[in-house]
Write a structure and sequence with these properties.
Blueprint lengths: L2 E3 L8 H5 L5 E2 L14 E2 L9 H5 L5 E3 L9 H8 L27 E5 L3 H10 L6 E6 L7 H4 L6 H4 L1 H9 L4 E5 L9 H7 L2 E4 L5 E2 L11 E2 H8 L16 E5 L3 H11 L2 H4 L6 H8 L5 E5 L11 H10 L1 E3 L13 H7 L10 E5 L2 E6 L3 E9 L6 E11 L2 E4 L3 E2 L17 E2 L2 E3 L5 E7 L2 H4 L7 H18 L11
Parallel strand pairs: 5-6, 5-8, 6-7, 8-22, 10-18, 11-12, 11-18, 12-14, 13-14
Antiparallel strand pairs: 1-4, 2-3, 9-19, 15-16, 16-17, 20-21, 21-22
The structure holds flavin-adenine dinucleotide, NADP nicotinamide-adenine-dinucleotide phosphate (NAP) and iron/sulfur cluster (2 copies).
Amino acid sequence: MPHVVTQSCCNDASCVHACPVNCIHPTPDEPDFGTAEMLYIDPAACVDCGACVNACPVGAIKPAGALGDAQLPFLEINADFYKDGRRRRTILAPHEKPLQVASRESLRVAIVGSGPSAMYAADELLTIPGARVDVYERLTTPYGLARTGVAPDHAETRRVTDVFDRISRQDGFHLHLGVEIGKDVTHADLLRDHHAVLYATGASSDRRLDVPGASGTATATEFVAWYNGHPDHAHHEYDLSHPRAVIIGNGNVALDVARILTSPPDSLASTTISRTALEALRTSAIEEVVVVGRRGPAHSAFTLAELVGLTAAADVVVPPADLVGLDESSLKHRTIRALPSEPTAGRRVILRYLLAPSEITDTGVTFTRNALDPETGRTVPTGETEHLKAGLILSSIGYRARPLPDLPFDADRAVVPNDRGRVLDATGEPVPGAYVTGWIKRGPTGFIGTNKTCARETVRELVADYNTGRLKLPALAR
Ligand SMILES: Cc1cc2nc3c(=O)[nH]c(=O)nc-3n(C[C@H](O)[C@H](O)[C@H](O)COP(=O)(O)OP(=O)(O)OC[C@H]3O[C@@H](n4cnc5c(N)ncnc54)[C@H](O)[C@@H]3O)c2cc1C
Ligand SMILES: NC(=O)c1ccc[n+]([C@@H]2O[C@H](COP(=O)([O-])OP(=O)(O)OC[C@H]3O[C@@H](n4cnc5c(N)ncnc54)[C@H](OP(=O)(O)O)[C@@H]3O)[C@@H](O)[C@H]2O)c1
Ligand code: SF4
Ligand code: SF4
């Protein structure tokens, strides 16, 4: 019986180097690592040694014989990655050389933010003997979206904070909570005391719908922050009195919200959900959550693992008329096609497709119906409309970073312009001493572990600049 990667995989690839037979893919060296929904164990190559189980920070790897009913689909999900003889024979690249600094002076780096990208960057920097890392976090609790984003019922994924606790306990790590850079302390202040400032501030705002009536619409970003007890969002109130809620957009955030809205409140009581949100959900009249994509089911933005998780928690249905453009060779597509078309009883999640929001009204959302162009596969408006009545309407169309004082900002991509983490000015020249990692560097996509490779890249560039004398000496060392 092989081992199996299950739903809570956060793609940090810790398991890859633990495996003696290189049967976990894609590895960070392989081209599809950046786009992979999770990592997969080759059942034909796994020798069942269990080494990967201990390496995984979020308990995502289980022996096949120990899978619960809700995890059984992951047997096929892992095996499917290796179908058609796609066995991977990549020879793993040896671990990268340890970071080395040329100077005898200790490297001092300020990191702004304490989310996953900040913590992985700190861990990498602290491999340098004598390095000091000061992490500044505007909230009074650390770890960013690992605490205020990850759903409260995803307890295993939240265990990644244990890894961050271990990083925090290393010599040279100093955490400064409740300090907002740009407000309480400036970039120039930090540069006086550090060789470099590494921004890991994430994407704290959201993309907004640009249709009539949308200006006051609540967003999934705020709703998630509310149920996770984020202090900036504790004051929100939501209309849970109508039997239907509509979520616009169908990424993993939309599925998290749909699952929380349809879960029995008692099942959430023992989680980290905010008590205010729990009490509000106890009075909720919502029976049906409609998750709406503007394109077809083949372009569902959620991952297969999260869909499987949702089906284990709620009735998930999809109207047969929406099931167009699916490819039978894709397990994700086959899983969507196999969803029931009728709910059984109780709370349900309806997946709808090819509906682009065109107006938000007092009674609900009006959508323009799209069709798939058979030649190009692109969506084209049909001119037909459909109105979905709802009380709670949430747009879940992605996060968006805010500009940072004293740093350039690319407003189109909502990132700080950079080259492998080195911040670039308007002329494309590096801004001395300024670096970025995580969502502020590459945009609001990717899993917790994706930020590990991202942070490593930035830290390598920072250390290279330090070694070539491009980073000024901190005031304290003068
Ligand atoms: C709702 C949601 C659920 C998710 N669930 C999962 C999941 O289950 N599994 C998974 O693998 N991935 C999940 N992800 C993705 C994962 O959370 C992100 O990839 C990751 O958190 C991004 O890390 P980051 O460090 O770039 O940003 P963040 O995690 O956003 O951290 C940024 C930090 O910077 C701080 N900050 C911002 N500005 C300042 C300032 N000026 N001064 C000081 N501090 C500042 C913020 O308070 C925050 O703590 C989820 C994402 C979302 C949005
Ligand atoms: N459990 C987990 O691992 C987990 C949980 C939560 C989040 N995350 C990760 O966090 C990242 C962010 O997730 P997300 O759900 O916020 O973003 P996302 O995956 O980018 O999904 C955004 C959704 O919004 C839609 N959209 C965008 N603009 C729109 C518009 N103007 N009108 C209507 N629909 C629009 C997109 O449709 P189109 O595709 O048509 O543009 C897509 O369906 C993702 O990488 C996600 O995987 C992971
Ligand atoms: S159980 Fe052993 S052989 Fe199988 S994937 Fe894990 S480390 Fe590799
Ligand atoms: S979370 Fe990391 S260690 Fe665990 S299975 Fe996924 S990639 Fe491997």
